[in-house]
């Protein structure tokens, strides 16, 4: 089995020694030195709590195309949301961060899968439901940022229909269809219809 290259980013040398000590020598992973950090498939970010400064660190690491696993001492609902927004795919509380557990989450991250403790996942889902109910639904939007009307139009665009045909099928005017597409592409900074369809497909919206 090919070993997953990982980098351990910590806020203090004691934490670094503790985490790398649990992972060095494990056959599933290869711990990289700081000079090799850019080669990491997965980066473990070990923190006491997710302060604004640590959020900036996550954003910077995300731009380096590495999958992020957060290892916090504590994490509240707001910090959990911030972590997800920064691209974190795995969370392991420091009190639960045995070598075996860390390797499990690292391997999941390397496969592109998420791994979050059940109670944190439940809290995250509750936040998403609250966001949908209190913010998005009143505006006619989905979690992906599209309204039901925009989804209907995009599905037909993806099926190859022209503006006139879409208008007929949805009982809209052609002007309405054009306005829907224009409003959506402008709001989401998409280039054109094809880009809008690609966005919707990537986010499982159509």
Automatic annotation (TrEMBL):
Q: Answer whether the UniProt record assigns the keyword Glycoprotein to this protein.
A: no
Pfam families given in the database record: GerE
Q: Which UniProt keywords apply?
A: DNA-binding, Transcription, Transcription regulation
Supply the Gene3D superfamilies for this chain. 3.40.50.2300
- InterPro entries xref list: Sig_transdc_resp-reg_C-effctor, Tscrpt_reg_LuxR_C
Q: Where is the HTH luxR-type domain?
A: 139-204
| One function term, GO molecular function aspect | DNA binding
Q: Name one GO biological process term.
A: regulation of DNA-templated transcription
This chain's source organism reads Micromonospora olivasterospora
**What name is this protein filed under?**
DNA-binding NarL/FixJ family response regulator
Top-level taxon of origin:
Bacteria
């Amino acid at each position: 089995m090919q070993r997953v290259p990982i980098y351990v980013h910590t806020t203090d040398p004691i934490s670094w020694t503790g985490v790398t000590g649990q992972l060095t020598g494990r056959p599933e992973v290869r711990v990289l030195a700081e000079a090799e950090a850019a080669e990491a498939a997965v980066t473990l970010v070990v923190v006491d709590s997710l302060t604004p400064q640590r959020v900036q660190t996550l954003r910077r690491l995300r731009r380096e195309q590495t999958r992020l696993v957060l290892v916090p001492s504590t994490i509240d609902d707001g910090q959990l949301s911030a972590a997800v927004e920064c691209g974190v795919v795995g969370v392991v509380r420091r009190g639960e961060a045995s070598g075996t557990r860390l390797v499990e989450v690292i391997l999941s991250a390397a496969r592109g899968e998420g791994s979050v403790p059940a109670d944190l996942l439940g809290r995250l889902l509750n936040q998403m439901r609250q966001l949908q109910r209190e913010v998005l639904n009143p505006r006619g939007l989905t979690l992906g940022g599209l309204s039901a009307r925009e989804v209907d139009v995009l599905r037909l665009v993806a099926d190859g229909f022209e503006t006139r045909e879409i208008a007929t099928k949805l009982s809209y005017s052609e002007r309405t269809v054009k306005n829907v597409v224009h409003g959506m592409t402008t709001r989401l900074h998409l280039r054109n219809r094809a880009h809008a369809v690609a966005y919707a497909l990537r986010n499982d919206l159509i």
